[in-house]
Amino acid sequence: MDLLVLGKEPIQPDQPAGQEARYTPEYEQLQAEIDKLSLPSASSGIDWRKVENLASIILSQKSKDLAVASYLAVALIYNRQVEGLAIGLQIYRDLLENFWETLYPTKARMRGRVRTMEWWVEKMETALAS
After folding, report:
1. pTM
2. Cis omega before residue 10 (within 30°)?
3. What is the DSSP string of 65-112?
């Protein structure tokens, strides 16, 4: 899968950002993996390849979701180091540029968008330091 198209190509022509994915099996699996960050062993227990795979599937087939993009961007740093950082930044930028109006969380949940971006920056710093 070409990851660089994830922030550019719509899910469907009539629903560019797709639908809310938070209650899909893929999202639940992804969230279960990310929830491991709250454990004492933190990132060592996370399967970052699984995070990358699930997030890529969601962003390409289900939903343009900022939290999913954040999870993917962090996973890419752990999996590919500096190259992953560059790819993650590009996907993030493209999503914001191309899907701002329809991206999840919705614009009505701007505080949710901001918190998601704050999480991304915090975890990105941790990933780069490791």
Report:
1. 0.94
2. no
3. BHHHHHHHHHHHHHHHHHHHHHHHHHHHHHHHHHHTTTPBSPGGGHHH
Tokens of 97: 């540029």
Find the length of the chain.
130
- Between CA 15 and CA 66 the distance in angstroms is 16
Separation of alpha carbons 126 and 110, rounded Å: 25
Do 127 and 46 form a contact (C-beta atoms < 8 A)?
no
Whether 78 and 52 have beta carbons less than 8 Å apart is answered as: no
Q: Which structure tokens are listed for 81?
A: 């180091």
pLDDT tens, position by position, 70-117: 999 999 999 999 999 999 999 999 999 999 999 999 988 999 999 999
- Give CA–CA dist 105/109, Å, rounded: 6
Angle at 115 between CA 27 and CA 47, to 5 degrees: 40
The answer for 39, left when phi > 0, alpha when psi is -120 to 50, beta otherwise, is: beta
